[in-house]
Design goal:
Layout lengths: L1 H17 L5 E2 L8 E5 L5 E9 L2 E5 H9 L5 E4 L9 E4 L4 E3 L9 E5 L27 E8 L8 E10 L1 H7 L8 E6 L14 E4 L2 E5 L11 E6 H16 L5 E2 L8 E5 L5 E9 L2 E5 H10 L4 E4 L9 E3 L1 E7 L8 E6 L14 E2 L11 E6 L12 E8 L1 H7 L8 E5 L16 E4 L3 E6 L12 E5 H12 L17 E5 L3
Parallel strand pairs: 23-28
Antiparallel strand pairs: 1-10, 2-3, 2-5, 3-4, 4-8, 5-6, 7-8, 9-10, 9-12, 10-11, 11-14, 12-13, 13-14, 15-25, 16-17, 16-19, 17-18, 18-22, 19-20, 21-22, 21-30, 24-25, 24-27, 25-26, 26-29, 27-28, 28-29
The structure holds 2-acetamido-2-deoxy-beta-D-glucopyranose (2 copies).
One 2-acetamido-2-deoxy-beta-D-glucopyranose binds next to loops.
């Protein structure tokens, strides 16, 4: 009875004060390598560590939550608080995981964009320990985000710990893996770490020794186990290269690909890529449609320009038509434009689709075109790269969420090959005869030609696309779904 009421009290206070461990608030200047991973309403999801100006280390569990949030998260660097100050960086589909296909028990490198300005004061990379065979027995700190009251921002806080002999953990934790985990003792009486500490760096002697994993909680004798950086350091170094990697693609001009349009945010950054279907309709992915709906009034569609920052014509939309399926994972959308496109045939024209159920075979050549992220940040000029259609099996083995019937698999096979990246979502994959094979799906994840890209197969959707196009003609309020059961429409308020 006594015990029960104490537990309830703890639970209530825990919500209000956010945590029980004995932590001390600190400033970002004391630990400038710590960043916050925040969801789309700026609540902290977990903690990350800066490894270089364009890469952050997190746990696999955190990566899983990022994917569950459809990558709509940002990395906040250079702030002592979550939700405010510092700079925000996207991650989108640039994620490099240790052990593919398993996001449960591993570590992950995120490639950030734009790159972080490592001023050494509020943003700094931390060196990793590469060999810790003889545990140091040294004092260390764990630095992460301590939540305040619900809705308020979390503050950076540190906990004093000591790195101790693994034998102590082995005794306490039956699942302790000697090589992959490091044993830590909490120096003050404390309680389990909050979930927002997932990924928090364990730092001693100015170096990264470990990161907190989701299961961390100081158990008996205040002992806990974290991921051990020395075990992963070689892999991490390679993963960093992915964020810095290079590969061939060609800068191009709109006249070569007049059917492609950039879907842009208020600041001209490219949210995703679209393809012209008719004078007033643009083909996009369901993910892109969702982004437009969320950002609505800020979004513009730029057609007829090689560049993202100027030229061409700008259009807005008040209506999105989507292919109805659960979630946003496996569908496409049509954006109806408020003002018609001037299809001059030179800088703007519509594309022809391949036919329903036409087979796009392994070995076929295609070109991907868009304004997506490249090795040098977002290009302001359109770029293209060639791909080969691969056997379905290649994507099936690389991606658990590949949908055989609706998607095809494509890859640039050049050495240091290019791949679709952030901003290329929806980018057209065009056959040598100029017809549309498909559009790049969101879940390519890794912006490197090492892995294939997943492409929505237009042959699966082309009847739906053709029959839905005309719906852009009728006023938005009018119901269209009775004519087409797979159609869902979204009208913006005037
Ligand atoms: C936290 O640390 C302070 C200062 O060392 C100490 O006085 C206090 O008892 C500790 N609180 C808990 C819950 O261990
Ligand atoms: C694809 O392109 C390569 C190189 O240009 C060519 O040799 C090959 O025949 C093409 N494949 C098809 C199916 O057209």
């Amino acid at each position: 009875m006594m015990l029960l009421s104490r537990l309830i009290l703890f639970a209530v206070l825990g919500d209000v004060y956010g945590g029980w461990y004995n932590s001390t608030f600190v400033a970002i200047g004391d630990h400038p390598y710590v960043v916050a991973v925040e969801d789309d309403v700026k609540n902290v999801i977990c903690t990350g560590t800066i490894l270089s100006d364009r890469s952050v280390l997190i746990t696999g569990n955190c990566a899983k939550r990022i994917m569950r949030n459809h990558f709509e998260v940002s990395i906040r660097a250079g702030s002592s608080y979550t939700g405010k100050e510092g700079t925000e960086h996207h991650v989108h589909n640039r994620i490099v995981t240790y052990r593919e296909d398993n996001f449960r028990h591993n570590i992950v490198v995120l490639c950030t964009d734009p790159i972080m300005n490592l001023d050494g004061k509020t943003r700094k990379a931390i060196p990793m320990v590469t060999n810790d065979k003889n545990f140091c027995g040294c004092r260390a700190k764990v630095i992460g985000w301590r939540r305040g009251t619900i809705g308020s921002s979390a503050k950076l806080a540190s906990v004093n710990v000591k790195i101790i002999n693994e034998k102590r953990c082995k005794g306490n934790f039956p699942h302790f893996v000697n090589s992959e985990e490091i044993c830590v003792k909490n120096l003050k009486e404390g309680e389990p770490l909050e979930e927002s500490y997932d990924g928090a760096p364990l730092v001693a002697e100015g170096k990264l020794f470990g990161i907190v994993n989701q299961h961390s909680s100081f158990g008996d004798e205040n002992i806990d186990s974290y991921y051990r950086i020395a075990h992963f350091s070689d892999w991490i170094s390679q993963a960093l290269e992915e964020c810095h990697g290079s590969g061939p693609y060609y800068s191009s001009k709109i006249e070569d690909f007049p059917y492609v349009v950039a879907i842009q945010d208020r600041d001209d950054s490219v949210l995703c890529t679209g393809t012209i279907l008719s004078v007033q309709s643009i083909l996009v992915t369901g993910y892109c449609a969702h982004l437009i709906i969320r950002k609505r009034y800020h979004v513009k569609i730029r057609a007829g320009s090689t560049y993202t920052g100027n030229g061409g014509s700008k259009h807005t939309t008040d209506r999105i038509l989507t292919y109805k399926k659960e979630g946003y994972d496996h569908n496409i959308g049509i954006v109806c434009l408020n003002r018609q496109l001037d299809l001059d045939g030179i800088t703007r024209r519509s594309i022809s689709l391949i036919n329903q159920n036409e087979r796009v075979l392994s070995g076929y050549n295609a070109t991907v075109v868009g304004w997506g992220d490249s090795d040098y940040g977002f290009p302001n000029r359109i770029r293209a790269f060639d791909v080969k259609i691969l056997p379905q099996q290649f994507c099936k083995t690389s991606y658990v969420d590949f949908t055989d019937s609706q998607e095809i698999c494509a890859q640039n096979l050049d050495e240091n090959g290019q791949a679709a990246c952030e901003g290329d979502n929806g980018a057209p994959v065009v056959a040598a005869d100029g017809r549309l094979y498909g559009i790049i799906n969101h879940y390519s994840r890794i912006c490197s030609g090492v892995y294939p890209d997943i492409v929505y197969n237009v042959a699966y959707f082309s009847n739906w696309i053709r029959s839905t196009l005309d719906s852009c003609d009728v006023p938005c309020r009018q119901s269209v779904s009775s004519r087409n059961s797979k159609l869902e429409q979204f009208c913006f308020e005037p």
